[in-house]
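Worked problem 6 (solution included).
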Amino acid sequence: MTAPSSAQGSGWLAQLPARVDVYEVGPRDGLQNELRTLATRDKAALIDALIASGEKRIEVTSFVSPKWIPQLADADELLKLIGRKEGVTFSALVPNLKGLERARAAGLQEAAVFLSATETHSKKNINKSIAEALETSAEVTAAADKAGMRVRCYLSCIWGCPYEGKVEVERVLEICRKLADMGIYQLSLGDTIGVGTPGQTARILESLMKFIPVEKLALHMHDTRGTALANALVGLTLGVTTLDASIGGLGGCPYAPGAAGNLATEDLVFMLHGMGIQTGLDLDKLVAAGEVAQDLIGRKLTGKYLQAALGEREKRAAKQRAQT
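Solution. The predicted structure is:
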């Protein structure tokens, strides 16, 4: 088992949180963007591998219409197959009250809603204006609260939009304040097209934190331009303790052309452990889960730590073969 070091060091490293929650989005946000649709039993196998690595918060599917995301059409079947796991919180994306009812019937403890920070992306992604999406989210949140379920929200295109370009932080703040007032327990801030830079990330977070407690904020970074880890580190220095990630870097966005995958879970955990930050995750077992994902998808995934670990293993195996 690869464990974090016991000391974080001095200076700014000492100001980092002692523990970070990694929110795994691979089974939903990752698989929905793949051309290959996995069998339900294969999705369950991947989720089991993630749980074996110590993952405690996993978004497993989406209760949207199969017409829009056929890769996740088996949501009800999948939840029946994986059942409940002690100490693990499963969540799913729900677009409306009908989706929430399906999620509740499946025994989920948590639901997620989705909004965009720009009108064009919102229309293309969910066929709703921002105002309409806020109204739907309020309905879902109120109904979920009555059912004893928590709701988190993904807000996309904060750092930039594939259709409208730059997004003013004032617009983001207005939406976030409305979401927080609804009772959303966590706002996952998304760099959907991976254009964020550390300075921009600091400005966005500092602006939001004037009105919203940092405990309510999570970061959901895409690595299109290789800055996801750098942006995550900025978030840590400002007090963010929940980071979304996807095994092997699975993911993207079907309505954001050119968007690469999410921040890879194993890359994030390698960095966190190297700074002495606890995650409760076993890095070696994350690599095993990444290998499961890669085998099921049928192509090499983008996670750098995953590929390095698999490459080192192959070198050792080749050396052993040569010696026999």
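Discussion: The two ends are 28 Å apart (CA to CA).
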